[in-house]
Amino acid sequence: MASTALDLKEDILRLKKERNAVILAHNYQVGPIQDIADYVGDSLGLAYQARETDAEVIAFCGVHFMAETAKILNPNKIVVLPDKDAGCSLEESCPADKLEAFLIESKEKNYYVIAYINCSGGVKALCDVICTSGNAVRIVEQAPADRPILFVPDANLGAWVMEQTGRKMDLWKGSCYVHVEFTRDSIQRIKDEHPDAVVVAHPECTTAVRLLADEVCSTEKMVHFCKNSPAKNIIVVTESGMLHRLQKEAPDKNLIPGPTDHCACADCRYMKMNTLEKLHACLDSLEPRVEMPEDIRQRAEAPILRMLEQSK
Ligand code: 13P
Ligand code: SF4
């Protein structure tokens, strides 16, 4: 007989206890996963949680690079991801071999390489420091003044950080396939329908969309913005999973998902690959595990630790 949702949740909690596991979930995960997780947050908060946990198993409900970051910080723990195919278009846009070839070609520039955390362990291993959308401005402000910066892989986030810091950077031409779906027209249209609403947008959006926003910030900072804004109506321009977290944290607000030209909201197909059923299965079998070669792990760990230190 098929188990009910209640049984499944109870059994996830049983397995979590038996395995001495912690469940970490990104703000874009489906509601039922957010509701059962020990911690829900943005990439930066999740990296801190992964570093601090004393659980033996980390069940990471997010995309692969996030689970890989947890593994880099915890080589002796088991890290499982409900769906091993949960990737990221930004990670795909910057393969490690292409970045390595580019850095060899441009050796004389002596780039200080800053990588947005949405990249593979192989790319992290080639970088000086990592950043997330939550700390990118702080990290760029602390970059050495006498070296040119190469920022990979998100050109939209990079452009926003340049505006915020006044620091010029060379940008890798990657983008998030979800956030570039929001257009100036689609956001202007929803603004016209709600003339008193304020707009909060993720920095992975294009410049044209960011220019329509009252606030541009990481997913975690969106929670603070929505809770503290005097506005009742708030248009949220990011992946749809964010609305679940915001509705719980700011129940008195009317939260309106930012639409694209084709859809009333935007889903990340990778984030949505994880389900409660797959979370249950991965806690049961402790598979699929995130693994990586030790030499790459060690080289990737240094720029992550530098980021955690610089964003305190
Ligand atoms: P945050 O770190 O702001 O949660 O962003 C992660 C992400 O993948 C956005 O698309
Ligand atoms: Fe990657 Fe975009 Fe999905 Fe975030 S929303 S995980 S950047 S594809």
Order of helices and strands: HEHEHEHEHHEHEHEHEHEHEHEHEHH
Fraction of residues in helix: 40-55%
- CATH hierarchy: architecture of the largest domain: 3-Layer(aba) Sandwich
Largest sheet, order of strands side by side? 2-1-3-4
Tally of discrete structural domains:
3
CATH-level-4 superfamily name of the largest domain: NadA-like
Q: Quick check: average pLDDT?
A: 97
Number of helices: 15
Basic shape: globular
Distance, first to last CA: 50 Å
Low-confidence stretches: none
Number of strands: 12
| Largest pleated sheet | 4 strands, parallel
The computed structural class is alpha/beta
CATH-defined topology of the largest domain: Rossmann fold
Radius of gyration, Cα only, in angstroms? 19 Å
CATH top level assignment of the largest domain: Alpha Beta
What bound compounds does this protein have? 1,3-dihydroxyacetonephosphate, iron/sulfur cluster
Strand content: 15-25%
General description of the model:
By secondary structure, the protein is an alpha/beta fold. The protein has three domains: 5-87 and 271-291, Rossmann fold; 90-176 and 299-310, Rossmann fold (3-Layer(aba) Sandwich); 179-257, Rossmann fold. Helices cover 43% and strands 15% of the residues. The protein is built from 15 helices and twelve strands. Helix 9 links the parallel strand 7 (149-152) and strand 8 (169-171). The radius of gyration is 19 Å and the shape is globular. Iron/sulfur cluster is lined by residues 63, 88-90, 118, 176-178, 204, 239, 268, 270-271.
